[in-house]
Amino acid sequence: MASSLHLALFDCDGTLVDSQHLIVAAMAAAWRLHGLDAPEAQAVRRVVGLPLERAIALLLPDLPEERHGAIAGSYRDAFFDLRRSEPPEPLFPGIRATLDVLDAAGVLLGVATGKSRRGLLAVLEAHGLRHRFVTLQTADVVPGKPHPEMVRRALAETGVDTAGAVMIGDTTYDIQMARAARIPSVGVSWGYHAVPELVAAGAARIVGDGAAVAGAVLELLNGDTRS
Fold this sequence. Notes:
Layout: E1 7-10, H1 20-33, H2 41-47, H3 52-59, H4 65-85, H5 95-104, E2 108-113, H6 117-126, E3 135-138, H7 149-158, E4 165-169, H8 172-181, E5 185-188, H9 195-201, E6 205-207, H10 213-221
Parallel strand pairs: 1-2, 1-4, 2-3, 4-5, 5-6
């Protein structure tokens, strides 16, 4: 028998929260610590969503793998130092309203992110949202995007079938992960990758406002997959 449960699985950085300032600043701090010129902000934004070591490898392809790991460690330290001294990454407008609508409709909520579990918990707790999400999938525990394992584990933890799940994200990595896991996706226009890229990657819906996410998710969960 097919499950009657539904799951909305959200990316974090660039989808739920606007964290680009902290990410770019922490990357620059890590680069400086290792005697490197800071990366261009646009280059950093392009790799947000990937597992950290992979993102650093793409930004620094000429360095050996062991240096990627060391720089990743420096980035994590810099990020948490910055977070202690600055306000938490803000939620994008309309996101809290979308979570309320989906919750009221009986849709389970989850997160699948390239962040570490420690980083994700810090964000959710800062906004009083930890209790809203029943499954948290992070790239320090399972293979990162665009590998489908985070979606598969979220489905297994919640008992939701692929027909009852939707992924919401701002990068092609989110959309590719959803396609690999055989679930539809909603692309958001305010994040790190451009709308044409999200469409080309296979997003079933594109929304330009946080409050509009709930409607797009509910349409897909109700079987309306028309573009």
